[in-house]
Amino acid sequence: MARDMTLLWGSGSPPCWRVQIALEEKNLQGYNQKLLSFEKMEHKSQEVLDINARGQLPSFKHGDVIVNESYAACFYLESQFKSEGNKLIPDSPAEQALVYQRMFEGVTFYEKLNAVIYYDWFVPEGERHDSALKRNREALATELKLWEGYLQKLSPGSHLAGQFFSLADVTVFPTVATLFRFGLSAEHYPNLGEYYALLKVRPSIKASWPPHWLENPKGQDTLKDI
Amino acid sequence: MARDMTLLWGSGSPPCWRVQIALEEKNLQGYNQKLLSFEKMEHKSQEVLDINARGQLPSFKHGDVIVNESYAACFYLESQFKSEGNKLIPDSPAEQALVYQRMFEGVTFYEKLNAVIYYDWFVPEGERHDSALKRNREALATELKLWEGYLQKLSPGSHLAGQFFSLADVTVFPTVATLFRFGLSAEHYPNLGEYYALLKVRPSIKASWPPHWLENPKGQDTLKDI
């Protein structure tokens, strides 16, 4: 199965990491993979464009089936390999609803993170405003408080949508890890800190930890005061 | 079933419209609903905040289960009412992959649309730049060409992920309708124009057409030259 799969990915990209975690959770180790460099613009190479007209990573192929969007690949893998590895979407209506709800709030969470840590990358020099960056930081702080509250309502040691690990964790954990990589304080956000500590030792996550984070364990301090 | 459901929504909001179409497709007419006014800031009312901490529409409740994110609600409805109404996620791996892929590309499509038509709303006056709006318009044009190409590859009269109507149409059609509401030219984008003409008469879509568009059929011409 896994031998029919190819993943083109970049280190430290949350969307790529989601697909890698999903593949690990579904016991699909052994897939073909190629680590490409964003710095060298390899995501715009012909190899990527052949699969992905957007020139983005992840690019993912299973046999003749192409599913590049990270959430799409996660849904696809869970649906096609339902009985392999860990079940990532629960059956109970209430549990399932919470998994979906947190997954899609996760899209907003990720955008608000990017609007702060990649502000200079997204906004050309002549268009930057301190007032905009300040507003983005405030929006991220508001978002962080929401997630801190979500975790507060669950019992200690819970995952994002309850006791079990789910697609909500697959899709949102890479955002949480990136927050801490960029200096988020576990003292300011103790529930997120606990969640991060719980999941970073999970086998699927350890196995897919961004290699350049391993090589250079010190991140940045962009978010330390948030 | 539908009597246990409540939808709080706003007219012309693509995320609200997605949920309304999904409810129609799953034959869940008769749900409780309340049309709220964004202009009057009713999405920040206590009634909404009680269900949705973000103060956003749609806000959706089924019994005690709350699923506010529009994509989450669509997945939830399809999963919980699989055998009711129309099947919105196909079983075949290739068809399913394409539905998921287009759904999540649809998130980008919607963002690129908003970055043009709501630029002044998102960006405070002192931070606006003609260069940014021009770039956003170019990004939208590039995105439109992608979708025009996707439709070109399918046979005439197809839906977004093939011959059948699916969650890809549920989630992306409201974006397409908004494009035409804001003046997109069907001459410039004939495949999107044909798709729009095909779907706007579909019963689920007619039944949920934004009431303020019906009252005032003339839209804007923001996108006429794109």
Task: Please give the structural blueprint.
Two copies of one chain form a homodimer.
Chain A: E1 5-10, H1 14-25, E2 32-36, H2 46-49, E3 59-62, E4 65-66, H3 70-80, H4 93-117, H5 119-122, H6 130-153, H7 167-181, H8 190-199, H9 203-207, H10 211-215
Helix pairs in contact in A: 1-3, 1-7, 4-6, 4-7, 6-8, 7-8
Q: Could you characterize what this model shows?
A:
The structure is a homodimer of 226-residue chains. By secondary structure, chain A is of the alpha+beta class. The first copy, chain A, has two domains: 2-80, Glutaredoxin (3-Layer(aba) Sandwich); 93-215, Glutathione S-transferase Yfyf (Class Pi), Chain A, domain 2 (Up-down Bundle), CATH 1.20.1050. Chain A has ten helices and four strands. Chain A has helices at 14-25, 46-49, 70-80, 93-117, 119-122, 130-153, 167-181, 190-199, 203-207, 211-215; strands at 5-10, 32-36, 59-62, 65-66. In chain A, helix 7 (167-181) crosses helix 8. The N and C termini of chain A lie far apart (44 Å). Chain A binds chain B through residues 53-54, 62, 64-73, 75-76, 79-80, 89, 93-94, 96-97, 100-101, 103-105, 107, 123-124, 126-127, 129, 131-132, 146, 149, and chain B through 53-54, 62, 64-73, 75-76, 79-80, 89, 93-94, 96-97, 100-101, 103-105, 107, 123-124, 126-127, 129, 131-132, 146, 149.
Short description:
Chains A, B: One of its GO terms (molecular function) is maleylacetoacetate isomerase activity. 2 copies of one chain form a homodimer. Chain A is 51% helix and 8% strand.
